[in-house]
Amino acid sequence: MSNSFQASSRQRHNRYLLMRHGHSQANARGLIISTPQRGLAEFGLSPEGEQQLASLLQAWRWPAPTRILHSDFLRTRETARRVAAHFGLELQPEPRLRERSFGDFEGLADRHYEEVWKHDEHDPAHRAFGVESVTSVAARMQAVIASLEQEMRHETILLVSHGDPLQIMLTAIEDQPLTRHRARTPLLPASITMLD
């Protein structure tokens, strides 16, 4: 099985800004919170995350978004809400932008990420520990952009998501093997990446 995800090389109709949520309560506590059962209602932004967003918005250096789509987890929803308020935009929840499910490690210490990522390096389709596979994450994340490309033209769209899904999507878009998604420089909380 191929360990890459076919990315479209054609010109996009829209401009995309990919944003990782601000520092969260889960980050502060060193916990894996990856399922809707906990992520939708709990573990929002930490005080550090709130400060990150205030600084980011004060010194905004990217094109102003015209639309904002976000994972419906609390931490991404709170992040998107602050950006939307700054630019006077409405929010659009998009469940396909949710965190990657880390299966058996839900609610456990974030050191367990490394165990999953070691498996990712060998097989992007693996579901060890009950995790969502890298190939599944790549497919749903890429599907968001594909649907936006069909529906819209000339928009600047901010997609607010989570570290692993964004790293996986960027790896796919760059036509890199999905086994290398952790070879990328990790996306920091409240960071923004503009697609070329």
Give an account of the 3D structure.
- Pfam families: His_Phos_1.
- InterPro entries: His_Pase_superF_clade-1 (IPR013078), His_PPase_superfam (IPR029033).
- This is Histidine phosphatase family protein.
- This protein has 196 residues and is an alpha/beta fold.
- The protein has one domain (15-194): Rossmann fold, CATH 3.40.50.1240.
- The chain contains seven helices and five strands; from the N terminus they run βαααβαβααβαβ.
- The protein has a five-stranded mixed sheet.
- Helix 4 links the parallel strand 2 and strand 3 (91-93).
- Helix 3 packs parallel to helix 4 (74-87) and helix 6 crosses helix 7 (163-173).
- The model is unreliable at 1-9 (pLDDT under 50).
Helix/strand order, N-terminal first: EHHHEHEHHEHE
* Name given to the CATH architecture: 3-Layer(aba) Sandwich
Side-by-side strand order of the widest sheet: 3-2-4-1-5
Number of strands: 5
Q: Sheet bearing the most strands, described?
A: 5 strands, mixed
Q: How much helix, percentage-wise, in residues?
A: 25-40%
Distance between the termini: 28 Å
Total number of distinct structural domains: 1
Global mean pLDDT: 94
Strand coverage percent: 5-15%
Output the radius of gyration.
16 Å
CATH H-level homologous superfamily name: Phosphoglycerate mutase-like
For this structure, what is the CATH class? Alpha Beta
Query: Which ranges are low-confidence, i.e. pLDDT below 50, for 5 or more consecutive residues?
Result: 1-9
Q: What is the CATH topology descriptor?
A: Rossmann fold
Rough outline: globular
Number of helices: 7
> Which structural class do the helices and strands define?
alpha/beta
